[in-house]
Amino acid sequence: MIGLRAHATSTAVPHRAGTLSADPSAEALLREMNRPGVGTARREELCAALVRMHAPVVHRIAHRYAHRGEPVEDLVQVAYLGLVNAINRFDPGRGAQFFVYAYPMMLGEVRRYFRDRTWGIRVSRRIQELRPQLQHATQRFVQANGRSPRPGELAALLGVTPEEVTDALLAWESYRPLSLDGTGDGDPEASPLVERLGCEDSALQHVVDGQALRGLLAELPDRERTIVLLRFFGNKTQSQIAEELGISQMHVSRLLSKTLRHLREELYGA
Q: What positions does the domain RNA polymerase sigma-70 region occupy (predicted)?
């Protein structure tokens, strides 16, 4: 698309207001482009002239899709890409009008841009195509009934299943996700969303296990419970525990292993 903007801003061949018809000299230029022996420099001149001729159509297509949230300048460049592809692929020998061939290619390039480049998540083509239909159907329903439609009502209007409508509505919300670096509410003074989002507390599972363990500890015999508490909550060594309870360190080790195995089986079933 390099150089297309420069071509587009040059003086274009006049178009009659309100029409989309191509200049009648387009076919003549294309025949010259496809003539054997035409040099590269001449082909580029002819291509630039064809681009200037169709600049109003390109801009009209871009503005047709401008309400979908993409910069018009980007849509203009995408439509120009479709135009140049049409120029390069058109065969004057078939006798068709160039505009009839080029206009669908420009539209298709813009639609492909929305389908492949602008979605925040990857969704099926069917859901992508259903999204604009939902928009129009919702607007018509609200105008006629004074309220928002339910998924079943939209499904009946469009001749699709309620599940498809639900999928399309969910995808609609994910078309352009908010950036975590943005504020999310349009206030430039607000802190970024990433600083206001909650996260999973890594200690939460320990709280759950701790509550379950509290009950299991209460059920242990006094000596086993004392050994566990002194070892893990009193931070004492097995030798210190043995001395405090008046038993051998080996006995403490056996009781501790047995008690921990019992608690593990009761907590996790293994």
A: 50-119, 129-196, 216-265
Cβ(57)–Cβ(106) below 8 Å: yes
Whether 22 contacts 97, CB under 8 Å? yes
Residue 245's identity, in one-letter code, is L
Last residue of a domain, one of 137, 160, 178: 178
> Is residue 186 included in any domain, yes or no?
no
Same domain, 251 and 224: yes
Does residue 161 sit in the same domain as residue 208?
Answer: no
Q: 209-250: per-residue pLDDT in tens?
A: 777 788 888 899 999 999 999 998 888 999 999 999 999 999
Kindly state the helix (H) or strand (E) to which residue 258 belongs, with its residue range.
helix 249-268
Choose one of 67, 86, 117: the last residue of a domain. Answer: 117
Rounded CA separation 170/150 (Å): 14
Read off the pTM.
0.42
pLDDT at residue number 60: 92
- How far is residue 62's CA from residue 100's CA, in Å, rounded to a whole number? 18
Helices 249-268, 204-219: crossing angle, 10 deg rounding: 120
With tokens 């871009």, the residue in question is 62
Residue scoring higher pLDDT (207 or 147): 147
- Higher per-residue confidence, 44 vs 18: 44
Q: For residue range 167-199, list pLDDT tens digits in order.
A: 777 665 555 555 555 555 556 666 665 566 666
Q: How far apart are CA 256 and CA 270, in angstroms?
A: 17
Cα angle vertex 216, ends 214, 218, to 5°?
70
**Considering its fold, how many domains does the chain have in total?**
3
176 neighbors 118 (Cβ within 8 angstroms): yes
Short-list 172, 262, 179, 250, CA closest to 217: 262
Domain that holds residue 237: 204-268
- Residues 112, 136 within the same domain: no
